[in-house]
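User: Some background: our group keeps a shared notebook of sequences we're curious about, and every so often someone picks one and asks for a predicted structure to add to the entry. Today it's my turn. The entry only has the sequence so far, pasted here. Could you supply the structure so I can complete it?
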Amino acid sequence: MTSSEHGVGFGPADRLAQDPESVRRRFWIKFKKVVASLPFAEDLLAAYYCAFDRQTPRHVQASLLGAIAYFILPFDFVTDVMPMLGFADDAAVLATAIRMVASHITNEHREAARAALKRGVPEEK
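Assistant: Of course. Here's the predicted structure to add to the notebook entry:
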């Protein structure tokens, strides 16, 4: 199976997901800008930590990178600047990816996410 088979089905996000370093860099830029308005910030961070964990299987990394890439794109199906609705599509894509790979998101990933949020704006990892 190729990593594109595990994408989000949205071409720009799937293409971005093919470049994990770009996803890593761009993720933190957007996350820092919007963290206060994200009700799913902890899940997003846990997915991020799982996606970049060397112990995570490649197909799981590909699925999560696709969802994270969708989050960081400057354009998507519902614009992120719309109050209350702006991140609904991002949350749906992320929730779907997490459901598909939930057994791979460990307590350590979730603890790292909680710790990062407690510190405030997370540092790049």
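Suggested note for the entry: The longest helix spans residues 20-34. The chain has a mean pLDDT of 80.
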